[in-house]
Design brief:
globular, 5-stranded antiparallel β-sheet, 461 residues, mainly beta
């Protein structure tokens, strides 16, 4: 989700583009919806009919568990955000801090601990005994008890989570314009973290121009308190004064191939990260017609495809409706041909949502099936979608889970990831959901065991 501080020219650009999004729907044929024997939202081309509080899913998906928000993370505005995994534990960010869950029995997840550490949006990653949080909101200091007084600090917070019941704050790094999201690139005992953030905001204490498009933080794993910024590479030096020089939203590293895919609001970018401190641009993609906000990227397991998502409306609008073209607020599938990315097709959920349901492509991950390209993905109030892009030109949904409209504003699944046989969804207001898909296409994934999983540091299975 784009933060409340959409900055400078980016905000103007988003508003201008959003006004153009009520065009006639594309004639592109939608994939057939997954079948269900339960109460469903409407198929493509008709209005969704799920009532508030209702739950629907395809026949091949089962909702096996839910843990609601509790304690310091359940207050108004304390929305759940991103997820990371390590061993038998899941880590969930929240605007109020973060939580650790024991998922050794996925159908019976247990809350282990919660840390009250308010900030926007607390996206989380885990590496060894270290947990890193993205802070994209000016505070009056780096510690968890900081407030919103002088508002002169934002960036990364670092915790020691060796004791899961009692995480310990160990340090922080201030970054220009904060950290909207971050990406880990491990290198031996050094953890490099790519910081993505929008900007600049000329009147801000923490986000003054010029804003380098990404920042690279070095965290020595044995002395995380000495973490520091080691580079601020400007990926687009030729457009310093352009309205699109607004930073990056998300970067996915693919260390196996020494590359990364960056979603930089106005562009998609393929990077060479063979030298992790000095990434180089290999290719820049621009699509002003179909993309408003290049939000995130996912590689296929062989690294030959990249799915880029468009977060039309910043996650706050109802874009899964008949008035929004099927190529907007969707995923674009690109293939690498002779080292260059070429667009092949689009995917958008085929279940139209109601006009009060914020819905757009958001965070997802591969389901590890050899020889197939299958993703699970969050769509806010569009729920969780499982879709197959093995045929890049004709991707299709093969399963889904969703709730009826949640009254009171922004809601729905923020992140949905597959980990060791189950799908875990971070629902912004409803808590941690655990889903299981049973389908001939995805069943082979149950044989794959991961030691850990941070979606923006993509490993080969």
């Amino acid at each position: 989700m784009i933060s409340a501080k959409l900055r400078g020219a980016l905000l103007c650009t988003v508003l201008l583009l959003a006004s153009a999004c009520a065009a006639e729907p594309s004639a592109t044929e939608e994939p057939a919806p997954a079948t269900t024997s339960q109460e469903t939202s409407a198929p493509a081309g008709s209005t969704a009919t799920l009532s508030p509080g209702a739950v629907a899913m395809s026949d091949n998906v089962k909702h096996v568990a839910n843990l609601p928000r509790t304690g310091p993370l359940s207050g108004e505005g304390n929305l759940n955000t991103d997820l990371a995994f390590q061993g038998d534990y899941a880590y969930m960010g929240n605007f109020g801090g973060f939580a650790i869950y024991d998922i050794s029995e996925p159908t019976k997840p247990q809350l282990v601990s919660q840390v009250a550490c308010p900030a926007q949006q607390n996206d989380v990653t885990v590496y060894g005994d270290l947990l890193v949080l993205s802070i994209d909101e000016p505070r009056d200091g780096p510690e968890c008890d900081s407030g919103e007084g002088e508002r002169r600090w934002e960036g990364l917070r670092i915790f020691d989570v060796s004791d899961k019941k009692s995480p310990r704050y160990v340090g922080a790094v201030q970054t220009d314009c904060g950290s909207h999201t971050h990406t880990m690139v491990p290198d031996g005992e050094t953890l490099y973290v790519y910081v993505s953030s929008p900007g600049p905001e000329p009147e801000s204490e923490t986000c003054r121009p010029p804003h380098e498009l990404i920042q690279i933080v070095e965290i020595p794993t044995r002395s995380p308190q000495s973490a520091k910024i080691v580079n601020k590479p400007n990926l687009f030096p030729d457009r310093a004064n352009s309205e699109f020089s607004s930073g990056c939203h998300d970067i996915t590293a693919f260390p196996q191939n020494k590359v990364a895919a960056a979603a930089c609001f106005g562009d998609g970018v393929l990077l060479d990260i063979s030298d992790p401190v000095n990434p180089k641009v290999l290719q820049q993609l621009t699509d002003r017609e179909n993309f408003q906000i290049w939000h995130s990227a996912t590689f296929s397991n062989d690294g030959k495809k990249i799915v880029f998502g468009d977060e039309l409306g910043g996650g706050s609008q109802a874009t899964c409706d008949r008035n929004t073209p099927s190529t907007k607020g969707a995923n674009a599938v690109y293939e690498l041909v002779n080292g260059q990315l070429e667009r092949r097709g689009y995917f958008k959920i085929p279940r139209e949502q109601q006009e009060n349901e914020n819905c757009v492509a958001h965070n997802g991950s591969l389901i590890p099936v050899e020889g197939k390209d299958i993703m699970v993905q969050a769509w806010y109030q569009g729920g969780v979608s499982i879709w197959d892009f093995t045929d890049s030109a004709s991707p299709k949904e093969i399963g889904f889970f969703e709730r009826g409209p949640i009254e009171g504003g922004i809601a729905g699944s923020w992140s949905a990831y597959y980990y060791n046989g189950y799908i875990y969804s971070s629902d912004m207001t409803e808590g941690l959901d655990v889903l299981e898909i049973t389908d001939p296409l995805t069943d082979p994934a149950k044989q794959v065991t991961m030691d850990d999983f941070n979606v923006q540091t993509q490993k080969v299975y």
